[in-house]
Amino acid sequence: ILAINGNVGNTNMPAKTASVYIKDNTNPAQKKLVVAPVSYHLNEDDSTRFTVALPAGYTSAKDVVITLGVGAGTEAAATDYTRLQTSIKLPAGAASPFTTQYAVIATTKDKIIEKDERLALTVAAAGYTVADTAMIIDDVTRRTAANTA
Question: 26-46: buried (b, 16+ CB within 10 Å) or exposed (e) per residue?
Answer without folding.
Answer: eeeeebebbbbbbbeebbbeb
